[in-house]
Amino acid sequence: MEVKTLSVSEITQYIKRLLTSDPILCNIHVEGEISNFKLHSSGHIYFTLKDPYSRIPCVMFKSNADHLKISPKDGMKVVIKGYISLYERDGQYQLYVQEMKSAGLGNLHIAFQQLKDSLQKEGLFDAKYKKTLPFIPQKIGIITSPTGAAIRDLLSIIKRRFPKVNLSIFPVLVQGDQAAASIVKAIELCNTYEDIEVIILGRGGGSIEELWAFNEEVVARAIFHSRIPIISAVGHETDFTIADFVADVRAQTPSAAAELVLPQWRDVMETLNVLERRLLFSMNTRLSQEKQRLETIKNNYYFKYPLNSVYDQKQYIDQLYKNLNRAISQKIFLNKENLRNTVERLNSLNPLSIFSRGYAVVTDPQGKNIKSITEVQEDELIKIRLLDGSIMTKVMQVKKEDRSREKDKL
Known about the structure:
Blueprint: H1 8-21, E1 28-39, E2 45-50, E3 55-60, H2 62-65, E4 76-87, E5 92-105, H3 107-122, E6 139-144, H4 149-161, E7 166-171, H5 179-190, E8 198-203, H6 217-224, E9 230-234, H7 242-246, E10 249-250, H8 254-261, H9 265-298, H10 301-304, H11 306-348, H12 351-356, E11 361-363, E12 381-385, E13 390-394, H13 403-409
Parallel strand pairs: 3-5, 6-7, 6-8, 8-9, 9-10
Antiparallel strand pairs: 1-2, 1-4, 2-3, 4-5, 11-12, 12-13
Helix pairs in contact: 4-8, 5-6
């Protein structure tokens, strides 16, 4: 009997009928860990359900997803109710999810969280340790797989944005058991180059297992101890690794890292042109101001007649000298007048001046002044002091003067 030749469509349709008619596969409960989770704009959910040995693609349509009581995410352990069928276009069987409930986090996510908490307590994520990226690095080190899409995107965008930059590529393994050691060695090697100013560490997207090398503690510590600032560009926008938290800057994707590390060449040139115009304008304005200031100085009275100021000062000194002489002369005159008046007052009080007016001083032989007739007797010797000498004489008669007659005359 001749075997009928079937088309690919007929084969896939047949397999689909077998799967959907199987009493076990049409209503099953499966436990596993979510990986590669994606919420489509249509509202459908796509992800992979896995255990340590196998994985199966899953889809949950919007009509069922709207009734979810949990928020699915990568690493979450779940129990799923659904059925197995075939996606005819790709010839791939998948699990169509009708219900989902949480069963806890997977082992990798637990390990991720434990390491994250430990390193955070040590301070490896602290902002104070983050190094600043250079504005326009002269040389960039790129640590990634040499065959992945990430390196092609990085090179394409960097060369388009800033063609004159120098790049050094350090090829590494980005997944697998040897990937962490390969990345650490590349970071250490980069740091031996004095001219490398910034490092981009990255790879394309993937599951948590595929990205696990960037969650290793040795890689985190190598990033932290790098003297060169590092941009972590691992996976897609929703992917977070330990490397992202330790790095100086986190880029959402490798393409985003290429845009972060360098400005647009056109933007830089435009900025330089604007600054050049501002500088020229400022210089011309300053020159014009200084020229005007110079003209003002040249026309200044003191600049045109510099000796006039000296002459003014000389004249001022002459006037001061004249005033000083006048003041000195007046002071001398006043002092002479004061001295003359003082001498006259002193002369008026001088006893000798009294003698010159005919007065005399009478004393006894011992020199005691005689002020009254009661102090002498007849035949007693007295001494009379005159202007040019003295006379020793004897009292012939003592006669008292009558004061009453003088009062009557008055």
